[in-house]
Write a structure and sequence with these properties.
This protein has 386 residues and is α+β, with helices and mostly antiparallel strands. Helix content is 51%, strand content 20%. It has a domain of 93 residues: Beta-Lactamase, CATH 3.30.450. The chain is built from 10 helices and 10 strands. The strands form 2 sheets. It has a 5-stranded antiparallel sheet with strand order 2-1-5-4-3, with helices on both faces. A 5-stranded antiparallel sheet has the order 7-6-10-9-8. The longest helix has 66 residues. The chain is rod-shaped and about 135 Å long.
């Protein structure tokens, strides 16, 4: 019974190696695509940090321009100089309603030169307290604008403060602020990302922050979520503090929610003094890019396997034509000549039941071993034998 042919074994080995190479190539492509996703995550965090700075600058300029217009209002100036709180509030409230709706302004302060609050337009019943914030301190020291993200007693907000100088005399200070909920809405409008804000509990405690319900204080021991889109904290799943976030941001990989794919990450948040006070959670919709990468991976997998099988077929055909086809012709010529010469078949001994074994046996048949047979050992007889 004839065994598996050498050609079949060689072709099987070539196909196996080709398929393994194709699968290995597909795995490498998958690794490259996963690296692309990781790079996209880092790029999303870098972009979020840059957007944070750009949006902050744009909002500061917007608030500054609004303040300039307010300081030029003669009626507001007269009421503030007379310290007519009722008149100042009556004039300010309709303006504030427009600013809140149109420009996302959430806080408006009139502050005396002594840094005590003369009027909070957004909270008129709260007044007379001393303001000890860096933005106001900068405005006092420089007689210019003070601006930046800063925590107060009731809000973490982007604040802009200007001195109000009338006829060379300091009348006081006017501040506009935008709470981080509104600030994050401006960022989302610019990037499409869902965002959340974590603040360090130690920073909140230092400021005596009272702007959160009691239940919020008990959710995490180190940070407090003060502003977020509904799904951000659950999907981002960041369990560390602001100190654990590198300056370039911390990508947290990819997460899928229904038919959507998101890149997650965290960006450090600094206040106007440059101190880390919290972190910005970023949820970047990556669905389009993810679908494209997955389709590319599938196409690459199919293409690599097709190339591997085609390469196996070409190698198998080449081996057949270059080696085994010629070996077959050689075997048939030798068999024909051995038969014509009447060489006995019994002298051929098969070393294997395939092409090579039969060819070896045929060579032994045609070209027998030239070494002479060994002679039997001489018989030794005793001296008494006759």
């Amino acid at each position: 019974m004839r065994g598996p042919s050498v050609e079949g074994k060689v072709v099987a080995a070539v196909v196996g190696v080709s398929l393994a190479s194709g699968l290995g190539g597909a795995w490498l492509v998958g690794r490259v695509l996963r690296q692309e996703i990781e790079d996209a995550g880092r790029e999303a965090m870098r972009s979020a940090a840059e957007t944070l700075a750009a949006v902050e600058q744009a909002e500061v300029e917007k608030l500054s321009a609004t303040l300039d217009a307010l300081l030029a209002n003669d009626a507001l100036r007269a009421a503030f100089l007379r310290r007519d709180r009722a008149r100042l509030l009556a004039l300010s409230q309709p303006i504030f309603a427009t600013l809140r709706e149109r420009d996302r302004v959430t806080h408006w302060y009139f502050v005396d030169p002594s840094r005590t609050v003369f009027l909070r337009v957004h909270l008129p019943e709260l007044r007379g307290d001393l303001v000890d914030r860096e933005t106001l301190r900068r405005a006092v020291e420089t007689r210019e604008r003070g601006a930046g993200k800063e925590l107060g007693k009731t809000a973490f907000a982007l604040r802009v403060v200007r001195p109000w100088v009338v006829d060379g005399q300091l009348a006081g200070y006017v501040e506009l602020a935008e709470e981080m909920d509104a600030f994050l809405a401006a960022m989302k409008a610019r990037t499409g990302d869902d965002l959340g804000l974590l603040l360090e509990r130690r920073v909140l405690a230092e400021k005596g922050f009272v702007g959160l319900p009691a239940s919020s204080w008990n959710e995490r021991p180190d940070v407090v979520m003060v502003a977020t889109a509904p799904a951000v904290e659950r999907l981002v799943g960041f369990g560390g503090g602001a100190d654990a976030v590198p300056d370039a941001g911390l990508p947290l990989g990819e997460v899928e929610q229904g038919d959507r794919s998101y890149l997650r990450g965290v960006v450090p948040l600094r206040d106007v003094g440059g101190r880390r006070v919290g972190a910005l959670l970023v949820l970047h919709d990556f669905s389009g890019e993810h679908a494209a990468l997955r389709a590319a991976l599938q196409r690459s997998f199919v293409l690599l396997l097709a190339v591997a099988l085609a390469a196996a077929a070409l190698v198998g055909l080449a081996v057949h034509r270059i080696v085994f086809l010629r070996l077959g012709r050689l075997r048939r010529r030798i068999e024909a000549r051995a038969a014509a010469a009447g060489l006995p078949v019994a002298s051929a001994v098969l070393s294997g039941n395939d092409e090579v074994g039969r060819l070896e046996a045929l060579v032994d048949r045609v070209l027998p071993d030239p070494s002479p047979p060994e002679e039997p050992a001489a018989r030794v007889t005793g001296s008494h034998d006759v």
